[in-house]
């Protein structure tokens, strides 16, 4: 990925909202935590500490709404841990697992493979009898799989032995495994079946899983909390609960854009509009920047103007409103107009549905909810809410 210096190259710089490991040195912006949480404490700093000191609980869940930056932050955490001497393996569940068919045994398999890849990558010797025993175990036919479920302790013993070989090799510290995109399990409820399997929380080394945030509001999550530590990565706040601009958040998002493109490619009002109307959802912002770029090119302009931004935002607004019905309007109007509905919504099912579609955004520093700015704009245009009522 390269920084865009002209219109037409913007699509390459903003096509991915998450950064990959090789992109971090140039494009990672590390000053968003205060605007996310309202304080200096970082959930990623907490995960780093927990992975570098012995703990009773070694298994961690990372939660966060879509496009809040979980994958990017996990790649940065991987680098920090490796710099501290910990061998790390990341499992991309989107690629390495079938998230529509996944079960706890798939996770165990990826844990085992991850440890072998760490050992091979660092030329760490694993006793041949252990390798043969594991391979024989994993090659078992379908009938033997049922036996595996009764003999999980045997599988866990192999994992522990491999992890010990890694930890005891030279100056290497305990390994760390990171599972990204596990929060995309479908249907999300399946995550309870997987993570309630206690063996996944019994690893003698740190392991981090992303987890569907919608289940954070389910009463069943209490059982998960007994097994795992959890951290929440909030979204970047570009507005406050009183609808005033959060200048720190806006500036943070602008700096993220600045790392990917020359700001001379944007009229300042156009960029401000794109940032404010996408509500801190980077995926939406990047989509609208790309579409604005296309509009500016078609006009023969040398930079993105307000009219390009408005056209792009109009398309996004149309997509967001497509999932709404008139029966949703009263609750959405309450969220817009009444602070108590921003801070607590009694209808959890409604809340989760609208958060999953990013119609309602959640800001987790001091937890509160807000309509996506384009949804608010839509409801004002429909006469459902007064544009000044929430001020």
How many angstroms does the end-to-end distance come to?
A: 41 Å
Tally of contiguous helical segments? 20
Largest sheet: 5 strands, parallel
Order of helices and strands: HHHHEHEHHHHHEHEHEHHHHHHHEEH
Strand order, biggest sheet?
2-3-4-1-5
> Which value, in Å, is the CA radius of gyration?
23 Å
Helix content: 40-55%
**What global shape is seen?**
globular
Which ranges are low-confidence, i.e. pLDDT below 50, for 5 or more consecutive residues? Answer: none
Average of per-residue pLDDT values: 86
Number of E strands: 7
What structural category do the secondary elements indicate? alpha/beta
Strand percentage: 5-15%
What does this 3D model show about the protein?
With 391 residues, the protein is α/β, with parallel strands linked by helices. Helix content is 50%, strand content 8%. It is globular.
Give me some keywords for this one.
391 residues, alpha/beta, five-stranded parallel β-sheet, two-stranded antiparallel ribbon, 20 helices, 7 strands
Outline of the structure:
Helices cover 50% and strands 8% of the residues.
Helices, strands, pairings?
Elements: H1 10-14, H2 24-27, H3 33-37, H4 43-52, E1 59-63, H5 70-83, E2 88-92, H6 93-96, H7 104-121, H8 128-138, H9 142-150, H10 152-167, E3 176-180, H11 190-195, E4 207-210, H12 221-225, E5 229-232, H13 247-260, H14 268-277, H15 282-299, H16 306-321, H17 329-337, H18 339-343, H19 348-356, E6 360-363, E7 368-371, H20 373-381
Parallel strand pairs: 1-4, 1-5, 2-3, 3-4
Antiparallel strand pairs: 6-7
Helix pairs in contact: 4-5, 7-10, 8-10, 14-16, 15-16
């Amino acid at each position: 990925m390269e920084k865009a210096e002209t219109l037409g190259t913007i699509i390459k710089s903003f096509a991915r909202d998450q950064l990959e490991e090789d992109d971090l040195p140039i494009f990672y912006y590390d000053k968003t935590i205060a605007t996310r949480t309202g304080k200096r404490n970082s959930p990623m700093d907490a995960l780093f500490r927990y992975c570098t000191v012995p703990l009773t609980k070694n298994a961690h869940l990372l939660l966060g709404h879509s496009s809040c930056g979980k994958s990017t932050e996990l790649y940065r955490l991987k680098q920090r841990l490796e710099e501290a001497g910990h061998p790390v393996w990341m499992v991309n569940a989107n690629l390495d697992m079938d998230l529509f068919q996944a079960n706890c045994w798939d996770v165990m398999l990826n844990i085992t493979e991850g440890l072998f890849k760490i050992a091979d990558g660092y030329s760490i010797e694993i006793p041949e009898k252990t390798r043969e025993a594991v391979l024989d175990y994993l090659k078992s036919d379908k009938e033997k799989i049922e036996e595996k479920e009764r003999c999980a302790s045997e599988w866990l013993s192999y994992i522990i032995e491999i992890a010990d070989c890694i930890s005891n090799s030279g100056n290497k510290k305990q390994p760390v495994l990171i599972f990204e995109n596990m929060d995309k399990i479908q249907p999300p409820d399946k995550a309870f079946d997987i993570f309630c399997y206690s063996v996944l929380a019994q690893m003698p080394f740190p392991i981090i899983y992303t987890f569907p945030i919608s289940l954070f509001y389910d009463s069943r999550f209490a059982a998960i909390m007994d097994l795992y530590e959890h951290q929440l990565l909030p979204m970047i706040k570009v507005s406050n609960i009183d609808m005033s601009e959060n200048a720190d958040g806006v500036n943070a998002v602008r700096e993220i854009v600045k790392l990917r493109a020359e700001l001379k490619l944007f009229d300042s009002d156009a960029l401000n509009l794109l940032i404010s109307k996408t509500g801190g959802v980077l995926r939406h912002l990047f989509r609208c920047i790309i579409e604005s770029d296309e509009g500016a090119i078609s006009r023969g302009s040398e930079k993105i103007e307000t009219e390009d931004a408005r056209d792009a935002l109009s398309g996004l607004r149309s997509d967001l409103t497509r999932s709404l019905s008139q029966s949703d309007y009263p609750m959405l109007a309450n969220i817009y107009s009444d602070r108590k509905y921003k801070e607590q919504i009694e209808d959890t099912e409604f809340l989760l549905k609208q958060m999953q579609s990013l119609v309602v955004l959640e800001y987790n520093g001091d937890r509160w909810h807000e309509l996506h700015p384009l949804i608010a704009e839509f409801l004002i245009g429909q006469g459902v809410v007064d544009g000044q009522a929430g001020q």
